[in-house]
Amino acid sequence: MGSRHSSTILKTVLKSAFLLTLTGTAVLGSQNADVKVNAKSDSSLSSELNPVPASYGYFVDHYQENVKTNSTPDTNPAIALFNNTFLTYWNPTTSTKTNASLLQENLDKSIQISNGASQAEIDRSYLTDRRDLRYNLISGFGQYAPAFIKDTNAQTDFNAVPNAPLPAGSPYSSMKWADENATLGSAVKLVDIAEDSTWSGTGTPKAYIKFTRPYRQSDQVKVNPYLKNVMASAAANDYDFPSGHTTAAFETGETLAYLFPERYQQLITRSSEVGCDRVLAGRHSPLAVMGGRVIGTAMTAATLNDPDNKQLMSEAYQDTQKDLSKAQDKSAKDSFSDYQTNLKNYTYRLTYGFSPIGDTTKPMVVPKGAEVLLATRLPYLNATQRREVLYTTGLPSGYPMTDDTEGWGRLNLFKAANGFGEFLSDTTVNMDAKKGGFNAADTWKNNISGKGGLIKEGTGSLSLLGDNSFKGGTTIKAGTLVAENAHALGNGSLNLAGGQLTLSNKSVVVKGSYTQGSQATLKLNANSKLSVSGHAKLGGKVVVKNAKGLKSGVVILKSSKLSGKFAHHSLPKGWHLTYTKHNVKLVK
């Protein structure tokens, strides 16, 4: 970067000092402000989790340098962010396509997607285009949207499609999207800072990159019929990359997901849908909306790491939780109610079907400060563990628009919201049910691999839904661990030292030994079975539910060798247990 004003340097120094602290302290307000990474954890931070600086340093430290007076990659991190990606495909200085085949594929995808738009997508992309960029994300709240609209005084003057194409020069929404003095005014303020601050825009990067919009590159791109006059009359310097709507969508959606993580994946799926709407309308190319995700995510993390916003973040989080947690309107429409559809759409929009164009074997890089994006979604993890989640759920390298130096392009927040993708080492999870929310109960849906194991502590309940293969074994010291998949417990032994193991799958496998302590409980349905490949040493308590319709002699625990017995049991009336050399049976 070139020379900077002394005030900017001072701010950078102060922010750097704060971020070093933030690496160990989650900015959550009262929910878990006491969760810290101890000094030992910080000093032993594995090298693979360390951030990698770009030409500008770290985006979270320098994001406020995205202003008009900083108009080159040497002075503006919002431009330099794309040095290793889009600026290797396109040279704005000479207006030269330096990767012509990729840019042609980008245009071809624009043609294909825009021509394939359904009427519902045409209508939706029109409303996305016209409405305030922040109002666009409210639909991600689903059945909580009516309460959010009411308590933020949210409004728009675009509620339906027009009867005819808009005339040239028609304005966007003229209404203020929400009221900072409303009941949820703190949430509105934080979103306004994230999306509408001086340095959050894409105008300066667009002005430098100067990449033509797809509908002006080819008349085969089908523009939204309601917008054809507006788009035809747009200024010549109305450029494609990066998409401003998409940037704003991720700034808004990820900020709202921070405030209301109960709708985390739904809100960021809506963020990605806004980007898709821009391609459907012919406004932007896939690479432009992929770029919008990258810079929007970096900007959001920068806002949430900024010490100037810490108090507001705490207030907004607490206000939103208090206001929305019990405000579900089950009669309201929810366009994001289907998890598998959300997963499919979000995952596709990370790459838009592009094949890798670079090295696919590079290790994942986690940007400095990115862990804050999971602070409320995984509040029981410390900052280092959240970085590990991002590291183990990131995209493979090599795809277009993903390999920026810091790693913003490879973050997969949808997958990260499902917990670890891999245990790099033994991982302790300590959940405090008294804090409520995800501290009390959570579900990890990823297929977890790795050499490490899981150690469950605290009073909360953690469910494992993935087909797991981690090798380090499972230890339950307190609280509840729920096995919802046959291989939820991975490929190691299980030590039920305390707390409770609940089997929610008909068959659950322990690929090793099973040891149950005197204070521990095994809970299962009578038609469920724990299969232990090694030695099973029993103790503690077993709880068996729902034996209706079952024949006497059903096996509830099978092992290669069995020793000990359950000291206590709670069984269906009229049933008892029998023990053999290998099995525990439920007998009537």
From TrEMBL:
Residue span(s) of domain Phosphatidic acid phosphatase type 2/haloperoxidase: 188-304
InterPro entries: Autotrns_rpt (IPR013425), PAP2/HPO (IPR000326), PAP2/HPO_sf (IPR036938), Pectin_lyase_fold/virulence (IPR011050)
EC code(s) of this entry: 3.4.21.-
Transmembrane region(s): none
SMART domains named among the record's database cross-references: acidPPc
Keywords (A to Z) from UniProt: Hydrolase, Protease, Signal
Molecular function (Gene Ontology), one example: peptidase activity
One GO-annotated biological process of the protein: proteolysis
SUPFAM superfamilies linked to this entry: Acid phosphatase/Vanadium-dependent haloperoxidase, Pectin lyase-like
Record NCBIfam families: autotrns_rpt
Protein name in the entry: Extracellular serine protease
Species this chain originates from: Lentilactobacillus parabuchneri
